[in-house]
UniProtKB/TrEMBL annotation:
It comes from the Bacteria. Residues 175-332 form the DUF4143 domain. This is AAA+ superfamily ATPase. It comes from Oligosphaera ethanolica. InterPro entries: AAA_14 (IPR041682), DUF4143 (IPR025420), P-loop_NTPase (IPR027417). Residues 18-133 form the AAA domain.
Length: 386
């Protein structure tokens, strides 16, 4: 197992709450993290039909058969267990009783808000970060990261990326989509996901997507919610404040696994990455997700935004350092340093004193500071949200 940075937060929450819940996309390493951190705890996988049937039919008997402390994997498969767990932890008054993992937010969120509010610590585990791979002695070049992605299985097995992500996509559609939503047209949904891959790093336009897929805008909105609920996509909000200009209150779309995007775009070799017309979006997606992983691994909320106004001023990423301080970041896939990469950061800082400092994350190795803007290599992208 490649050590996960979030493990520190898991141990802290386990000592502070009776229940800890780890959510995240399929195959991001939730089960491995739970079992490696607490190897002596009994492990129960609720994907198992017989165990799930017992939990469904007689929750009390199930919980007596598997008493705390225990790990329950894929808890969203039997959300009614959460009410019984609430009763048990309230009576025991002890911390570190139930470690739950799950891939789907809707069922877990509903159960947690109804039964476990105030009783569970929450962690969101995304695929591996560049920092975690580096700590494990694994370093790739820019295009190899974009092609291979960050799923733990990409580094623990000999599977080729196209096989890994083909199987991942098929499993996701067959299991997660069918569980979350009652879709009448799976073929159109699959087409929709592939079209989204071509729009990573771009503003979301529901009407455009609806026209391209051949469905209604409300359907597109519902499908986006399905993808977000199962941690396939992440929506980055536009930062809004009245600076005397009309700001575009929209969202930008990113995938939580860049290797899946490359596969959806038909990229089958690392040498194809830089030549792909969507290379800029791929690189931006990877950097934004590195920032998001760093926030989640520290047990924090994202506090990430982008900026865009009607006058054309746009900055790829903003990080809220404090209530009155936002750090702007531009993302450039180029490997050659250029001071003009920071031009929009300088424009943005003139709008409000809230915008201070700044970073340019790019593919090169030169790390100068120009006009209080730090240029850094993409492998160090996690430091922009420190």
């Amino acid at each position: 197992m490649i050590p996960r940075l979030i493990q520190k937060q898991l141990l802290r929450l386990w000592a502070s709450y009776p229940v800890v819940t780890i959510t995240g996309p399929r195959q991001s390493g939730k089960t491995t993290l739970a079992r490696a951190t607490f190897p002596d705890l009994p492990y129960v996988n609720l994907e198992s039909p017989d165990l799930r049937a017992l939990a469904d039919n007689d929750a009390r008997a199930f919980l007596q058969a598997y008493p705390a402390p225990v790990i329950f994997d894929e808890i969203q498969r039997v959300p009614q267990l959460l009410s019984y767990i609430q009763t048990i932890v309230d009576e025991s008054g002890k911390n570190g009783q139930y470690l739950l993992t799950g891939s789907h937010q809707p069922q877990l969120n509903a159960g947690i808000s109804q039964s476990l509010a105030g009783r569970t610590g929450l962690l969101r585990l995304l695929p591996l970060s560049i920092q975690e791979l580096h700590m494990a002695g694994i370093t790739l070049d820019r295009d190899e990261y974009l092609f291979k992605g960050f799923m733990p299985r990409a580094y623990s097995t000999a599977l080729e990326p196209h096989t890994l992500y083909s199987d991942y996509f098929a499993t996701y559609v067959d299991k997660d989509v069918r569980q979350i939503a009652n879709l009448n047209n799976l073929s159109a949904f699959e087409t929709f996901i592939k079209l989204l891959a071509g729009r990573c790093g771009q503003l979301l336009n529901l009407n455009s997507l609806a026209n391209d897929v051949g469905v209604s805008s409300p359907t597109i909105a519902a499908w986006l919610s399905v993808l977000e609920a199962s941690f396939i996509i992440f929506r980055l909000p536009c930062y809004y404040e009245n600076f005397g200009k009309r700001l575009l209150k929209s969202q930008k779309l990113y995938f939580t696994e860049i290797g899946l995007v490359a596969w959806l775009l038909g990229i089958r070799e690392a040498t194809q990455v830089a030549r792909d017309p969507l290379f800029g979006g791929l690189f931006e997606n990877m950097v934004v997700l590195e920032a998001l992983k760093a926030r989640y691994n520290a047990g924090r909320e994202p506090d990430l935004y982008f900026f865009r106004d009607s006058a054309g001023t746009e900055v790829d990423l903003l990080f809220r350092k404090s209530p009155d301080q936002l750090i702007p970041t531009e993302i450039k896939g180029a490997m050659t340093w250029n001071k003009d990469f920071a031009a929009n950061i300088r424009k943005l800082r003139k709008l409000s004193p809230k915008f201070t400092g700044g970073f340019v994350v790019y593919g090169g190795d030169m790390t100068p500071v120009s006009d209080d803007v730090q240029f850094i290599n993409f492998k160090d992208a996690a430091q922009i949200v420190d």
